[in-house]
Amino acid sequence: MSGCSQHTNLLDSAAKGKFSLFRSQLKVSLKNTPPPLVFQPKASKGSPLILAAQKGQNKIVSYILNNFLEHLELEYTMTLKSDVAGHEIKGATALWCAASGGNINIVRELIGAGANINHSTATNTTPLSAAIYHNRQAVIEYLLIQGADSSIADQEGLAPIMIAVLRDDEDAFRLLGK
């Protein structure tokens, strides 16, 4: 099997939460490739950690964090599938993806492992902005409790509270106003 298809299979098992298959594919990948290259995002396909975080695969995220913590802040470019135009987010981390997807348990675990709560993408959106944009109330509340900076504006000049107003999200507005 080629290195490219090995990596694709590894990403697929991470995204789908196939833990046993993921572990066996990871072992094979690590025999042929050093860990930094296994976990480095490939083009717009992502990395095992980022895809598992985005898809809510808690067990795989925990395994990666417990065994490969140094790859926590890797960035990649993702295309939001919910956006008809195929909106790209450059510089997204696992925390940004988990916040956007509303995966509160993974958000907790990533922050507990030391993820940068205020890491900004290329357009200066933060995990808090992503959670507000996607109406992820539990994530918004948790990020704020953990000290997320609600004053960081994106490249359009929109701070999280402005995003909440534009999205007519009274709950997020209330949380941000505390």
UniProtKB/TrEMBL annotation:
PROSITE patterns membership: ANK_REP_REGION, ANK_REPEAT
The UniProt entry, under Pfam families, shows: Ank_2
Is Protein biosynthesis one of the keywords UniProt gives this record? Answer: no
ANK repeat start and end residues: 90-122, 123-155
InterPro entries xrefs: Ankyrin_rpt, Ankyrin_rpt-contain_sf
Q: Does the keyword Repeat apply?
A: yes
Print the keywords alphabetically. ANK repeat, Repeat
PANTHER family with a match to the protein in the record: ANKYRIN REPEAT CONTAINING, ANKYRIN REPEAT DOMAIN-CONTAINING PROTEIN 16
The protein's name: Feminization-1b
Recorded source organism is Oopsacas minuta
Lineage here is:
Eukaryota, Metazoa, Porifera, Hexactinellida, Hexasterophora
